[in-house]
Design brief:
By secondary structure, this protein is mainly beta. Helix content is 5%, strand content 45%. α2 (68-81) packs across α3. The longest helix is centred in the first third of the chain and has 14 residues, at 68-81.
Length: 838
């Protein structure tokens, strides 16, 4: 999983897999009917169903044992394992310190795991499948460079874990396959939780692991060309002591196969390093220059294009003698200048022994603190240049423990070089959050008339300096960019080194709240469809943060290009604004977008002097979206009778009557009229592409398709319906030049919400649904079960239903809608989700 920062979504979660260990997984397969996609291995092999499946899951003991991450991982396992109609199970197996083992038939979840991650990748899942596409091994690696949390703020750990476990059982990213973002979407926003499975994940899991036995049994894992045993070697010894006994790795497989072996660290010695199968590799751990502690390495064995890894651990205990590290310390300073930073001296040996340190030569300029203690310990060595003349000074410090004395040599170079002067004394910057545009100022470096080399290094990723090295005197360009930083104040520094002395130059950055367009935050203002192309003259809605300084609406025509200090450029052209607020903007796209059909362009929001990152968006000839009474693109459409009254449940259609449907996104109109002005009534601007209105699968006779006179961006289709319609509230859609709109009903039921939306399993619960166009005989439908309720009229209507406990017996997510129990042939409402907690 990779990332975009701030309130925006993070880039897709990355997945690396292998089919029979022969290559990487290729990109996303086609969308399945349930809105899910399946992993596709090299050679075109797609993850296939099998009747049952499970993984025993081991967790990284150093990162995930006994903490909130432990609980989050167990919750993610339970979410996948508790889906009704699926035999899949994630079984907690315990904690481990070992790295995942290739092809062990288990799932191991680790932090880091020695893997390298591309920039922005949150986690990686390694998957191995048999030649027929059934999966037999899976492991998850979290990127330790990102601070995932379990608190609901920042990047949500449990959401990432749930996503990666979905890859582990065979599901791929389902971008563009479903109307809302789901667990397997390749992007997730900061401060966003996706801890519940959506219908596509549930359908995909049931497809892959039905438990019915209908799918063929999984093929056996592919034969291993070469095996190396054991997979882990552990050496023990004393730091500075004799070399531990060597150990052997036995190589087996197809006779005559050649292999080469190479270590990842210099202290591992292999003999031989190549040969043929069968064979033995003798491994020696060279401990002479290694300090006490645990050291790790790997041995990579390459054969027939495949690599086997053997992990190696070396545990070196501190010897029962006194040791000092380092044995020589060097300092440098200017005469009369500031003291250089202190340095640490590590004192090791038998734990608990007392030691004493003292300055033997060097006098008052050399100090050690503390001068006594117990082993092991760290002491601080410092030097004072105040009264010293320029020259090289030498000193000695001795440390004694249990009658053993060790000595450290100290060298102190006092230079007569002039002091570096930096102008100004500090720099302060300010910029908007999310901006990658650097803000720069000059910094002058000089040392009087003296010349000398310098280096400059920033201490924070948002800080940069050019040049980073050179000759004095010099002028540096110091730059700061807010990037992914949240709004707030930040302090850092440049480390400037010249004449052997390092000085800190302070830098302050103030990050203001940035203009941010939410990921997936640009869509058709009628259908609310996102991640689809836009078209000329379309009503568009933008959602985000800090989009405008105030809430304002256009007062009249012509529509303005600036409201509440907000402006929007689409393809570099100013859009006409209808409404702006800090979180939403409604606009009409420029008519000149018609010249960009078939390509893509950018959308940028300006709030005063601040600007959002550019949003890349496609441009189509037409992109129709029909307005709905719910205001979210679902349910009953904005359909009127010939007298202008709405088509509703109480005022349904008559077959053969003429109706009007209100929409936007018809594309270029003829004749065209200027941006920002209302559409004329004479002549009427008509759609340039062919328009269809389909009602329950039958074509209506389109009488007019074009602009709504007196409005900007609002359009309508007038059509005579077929006389043979069988339903009172038919399903409709509009197609313009082959581009389809959202589907909608004519007077059919629509739901706003359900309360409560989360219930406990095992007991009867009364829920209330709010909606419009609900019939007196409305009932709640859960699966194939219909439960009648009591309807209360109002605006909106309320339907109260007592849900039997038998329908709430299993934890998970239920998809529910409302039907007319006395007219089941009529369209159901849009669906809502009801979460059942254990």
């Amino acid at each position: 999983m990779t990332v975009r920062r701030g309130a925006g979504a993070f880039l897709a979660f990355a997945v690396l897999c292998a089919a029979a260990e022969v290559g990487p997984v290729v990109p996303q397969t086609a969308c399945q009917p349930g809105g899910f996609t399946l992993l596709q291995f090299s050679g075109g092999v797609v993850a296939r169903p099998k009747p049952d499946g499970s993984f025993n899951v081991n967790l990284d003991n150093s990162a995930y044992q006994g903490n909130a991450f432990d609980a989050a991982l167990r919750s993610a396992m339970s979410t996948w394992s508790s889906v009704g109609g699926s035999s899949w199970r994630y079984n907690f197996s315990g904690y481990t310190a070992a790295l995942p083992s290739t092809g062990d038939g288990q799932m191991t979840v680790v932090s880091g795991g020695g893997r390298s991650f591309p920039s922005g990748v949150l986690a990686t899942t390694m998957i191995r499948g048999a030649g027929d596409g059934t999966i037999y091994d899976s492991d998850i690696f979290f990127n330790p460079a990102y601070n995932l949390t379990t608190t609901g703020s920042g990047l949500d750990f449990e959401s990432v874990a749930l996503h990666e476990m979905g890859h582990g059982l065979g599901l791929d990213h389902n971008d563009g396959c479903y109307t809302t973002r789901t667990v397997m979407q390749s992007a997730i926003a900061s401060d966003t939780q996706r801890r519940s499975l959506a219908p596509p994940e549930i359908e995909g899991l049931r497809y892959l692991y039905s438990g019915s036995g209908a799918a063929p049994p999984p093929a056996a894992p592919p034969p291993v060309v070469l095996t190396a045993a054991p997979s882990t070697l552990v050496f023990t010894g004393l730091a500075g002591g004799i070399v531990p006994p060597s150990q052997n790795i036995t190589l087996s497989g197809a006779a005559g196969l050649t292999w080469t072996a190479s270590p990842s660290v210099s202290w591992l010695q292999l003999a031989p390093s190549n040969g043929s199968v069968p064979g033995v590799v003798n491994v020696l751990a060279l401990t002479a220059d290694l300090p006490a502690g645990v050291h790790s390495g790997r041995i990579a064995i390459l054969s027939a294009g495949l690599t086997r890894e053997v992990t190696v651990a070396l545990n070196l205990s501190a010897p029962n003698t006194l040791q000092l590290n380092p044995s020589v310390l060097s300092f440098s300073a200017l005469a009369g200048g500031d003291a250089p930073g202190p340095q640490s001296l590590l004192v090791s040996g038998t734990a608990g022994l007392s030691f004493a340190a003292s300055v033997i030569t060097g006098g008052s300029w050399l100090r050690v603190s503390p001068a006594s203690g117990t082993l092991p310990a760290s002491t601080t060595i410092s030097v004072i240049p105040a009264a010293l003349t320029p020259q090289l000074y030498a000193g000695r410090i001795t440390v004694t423990a249990a009658g053993i004395t060790r000595e450290v040599a100290v060298q102190f170079s006092v230079s007569a070089q002039p002091r570096l002067v930096m102008t100004p004394a500090q720099l302060s910057f300010s910029g908007p959050a999310g901006s990658t545009l650097p803000i720069c100022s000059s910094l002058d470096l000089a040392a009087g008339s003296a010349a000398g080399d310098f280096t400059a290094a920033p201490a924070a990723p948002w800080l940069a300096v050019l040049p980073a090295s050179g000759r004095l005197p010099a002028t540096l360009s110091v730059c700061a960019a807010a990037g992914s930083l949240l709004a707030g104040a930040y302090d850092s520094a440049l480390t400037i080194t010249a004449f052997g002395v390092s000085q800190s130059f302070p830098v302050h950055l103030t990050v203001a709240a940035g203009v941010l367009v939410r990921n997936g935050g640009v869509g058709n203002a009628a259908s609310f469809a996102v991640d689809q192309p836009i078209t000329a003259g379309e009503l568009l809605s933008i959602f985000g943060e800090n989009l405008a300084a105030a809430t304002a609406s256009a007062a009249g025509f012509p529509l303005p290009t600036e409201l509440g200090e907000a402006r929007v450029l689409v393809g570099g052209l100013p859009a006409r604004l209808l409404y702006v607020s800090p979180r939403q903007i409604n606009l009409v796209t420029p008519a000149a977008l018609a010249d960009l059909t078939g390509s893509s362009t950018t959308l940028v929001v300006y709030n005063g002097r601040q600007t959002s990152p550019a949003v890349r968006i496609g441009v189509a000839r037409q992109a129709p979206g029909v307005f709905t009474m719910l205001g979210n693109g679902a349910g009953a459409g904005a359909v009127t009778h010939s007298d202008g009254s709405l088509v509703t449940h109480s005022a349904p259609l008559t077959p053969g009557e003429t109706v009007s449907v209100y929409l936007t996104g018809l594309g270029p109109l003829n004749p065209a009229f200027p941006d920002g002005l209302p559409a004329p009534s004479d002549p009427l601007p008509r759609a340039t592409g062919p328009v269809r209105l389909v009602a329950d699968g039958q074509d209506a006779e389109v009488l007019y398709a074009g602009a709504a006179p007196g409005f900007s961006g609002l359009q309508l289709v007038v059509a005579t319906l077929p006389a043979s319609l069988s339903r009172r509230f038919p399903e409709m859609s509009i197609e313009v030049g082959g581009a389809p709109s959202n589907r909608f009903s004519a007077g059919g039921p629509g739901l706003y919400d359900i309360s409560p939306s989360e219930v406990r399993a095992g007991s009867e619960v009364a829920v209330t649904l709010r909606g419009i166009n609900l019939a007196p005989s409305s009932a709640l439908r859960i699966g194939n079960t219909v439960v009648r309720g009591a309807l209360t009229e109002g605006s909106p209507q309320s339907l109260r239903v007592a849900v039997p406990a038998r329908l709430l017996s299993t934890a998970g997510v239920l998809v529910v809608d409302v039907v007319d129990a006395d007219a089941l042939a009529e369209l159901p409402s849009n669906y809502l989700l009801l979460t059942i907690q254990p």
